[in-house]
Amino acid sequence: MQTENSCIVIFGASGDLTHRKLIPALYNLFKIGRLGENFSVLGVARSELNDETFRTKMREALIKNEDTTPETLDEFCHHLYYQAVNTADADDYGKLVPRLDELHDKYQTCGNTLYYMSTPPSLYGVIPECLAAHGLNTEEYGWKRIIVEKPFGYDEKTAQVLDVQIHRFFEEHQIYRIDHYLGKETVQNLLVLRFSNGWFEPLWNRNFIDYVEITGAESIGVEERGGYYDGSGAMRDMFQNHLLQVLAMVAMEPPAIINADSMRDEVAKVMHCLRPLTQEDVEHNLVLGQYSAGEVNGNIVKGYLEEKGVPADSHTETYMALRCEIENWRWAGVPFYVRTGKRLPARVTEIVIHFKTTPHPVFSQNAPENKLIIRIQPDEGISMRFGLKKPGAGFEAKEVSMDFRYADLAGAQVLTAYERLLLDAMKGDATLFARTDAVHAAWKFVQPILDYKANGGRIHEYEAGTWGPVAADKLIARQGKVWRKPSGLMKKKV
Ligand code: NDP
Ligand code: BG6
């Protein structure tokens, strides 16, 4: 699929996401020739900027964080424009009509428009309506697509309301719900690893897999986003979207073909098969935590309650661990342990597939189990762990590994998640965007956790720089297991 010439309209253009992720992604796509010349970016927000001041702001952000050259930077910035709009006032959106006409004319973009909502979520239902008030949603002259940033709703009900609001003015094929984890190369690679290797697929089920561990650990705290984060917490911020999508990639059936419908059908099926959590399950299988002051990578850091924008009596979780199950033939009885947290000792997202041990220990009682470690980030790669004979007398088995690092794929030009997803939206490929049924199923699954939180469910304290509350260790210990403490992907020489 080819990228078509288009105008990208970013709502929330004066905000953090725009200068930290969206503009750099567009810049890098431009730099590698994936955008061509016929595109424009129209930034929209309430701040009184103009084309020049917006360009200056974006240029500064690019120079600070990206590998730039003055010529490419100049060329790219000429494609940037800005229009101040009072985002809550439908009449004011009228200003966009002549601006868009002018840009479509200048860049021959034939009315093709990609709207990107990067504003506070309270506007996600408002912007489509205000665009429609000026006919800016109709596809008579060029396609119109709209990217919705996370969070898509705050719970099951609000997600449904939001869907209704957006669907009044945009059809499902025009809506792109972004989950940047789906744009990560290593997440997509899970499908290739599973479905194009005869080795793995036959073993990928309850007969051979003992349990699955999924970790989304971050060493950063809430940074400047304390206000937002406190209303969200680890459950809404990372689990309901990113980690459930990763879990779906690990657990889904092979799609009949690789296209948006087929892929997303399989993802939705997994979400629907998650075993519903009862309140008893939640109490027994969920651990929530909040970090207190501590030391991370040699730096003394504040506790969550001392962070900017966080109320001193906040009951928001910065860590969660859950044992859940998928009720289908492939996965019946296999526990999935999923955890995420801020201020943990390292930034690492990884999946560990723990295989069942041999039926009878021939050589030693504690022969190593077979594990497949899939490192999503950083140090992206795959490590197979298995037992071999320790050299010398006797038959003692020792864990060894066979490792692959993405970095070793010389010459591979890997797009970042936002680069990939922006490009896909410009091509009209929704495969890596969340579909409405899966989003609702995910909210439905987590609703009992939200209820537990709302009813003052227990939050365990953990010291910043540790791997989370002791209660989470006890959760997995019930099955006689311990969480993997991810360090480097590659094993040290034995
Ligand atoms: P910011 O608060 O930094 O930016 C919000 C933007 O919205 C500003 O440009 C603001 O500009 C504009 N805006 C328009 N109308 C309003 C209004 N009524 N009230 C407040 N602001 C308004 O947010 P982020 O850029 O961090 O995030 C944007 C969205 O993306 C959020 O929904 C967030 O959840 C999501 N997101 C952000 C990530 C990040 O890393 N930052 C990561 C993943 C998702 P102005 O005041 O000029 O109108
Ligand atoms: C965002 C969350 O969606 O994902 C952040 O809002 C989190 O809190 C971030 O830090 C993690 O993304 P990544 O790509 O750095 O793993």
From TrEMBL:
Annotated binding of NADP(+), by residue: 46, 150
Cellular component, GO annotation: cytosol
Binding site for substrate: 180, 184, 218, 237, 342
Keyword set includes Oxidoreductase: yes
Key word Nucleotide-binding present: no
GO BP terms in the entry: glucose metabolic process; pentose-phosphate shunt, oxidative branch
An example Gene Ontology molecular-function term: glucose-6-phosphate dehydrogenase activity
HAMAP family in UniProt: G6PD
Family: Belongs to the glucose-6-phosphate dehydrogenase family.
Protein name per UniProt: Glucose-6-phosphate 1-dehydrogenase
Organism in which the protein naturally occurs: Rodentibacter mrazii
Gene: zwf
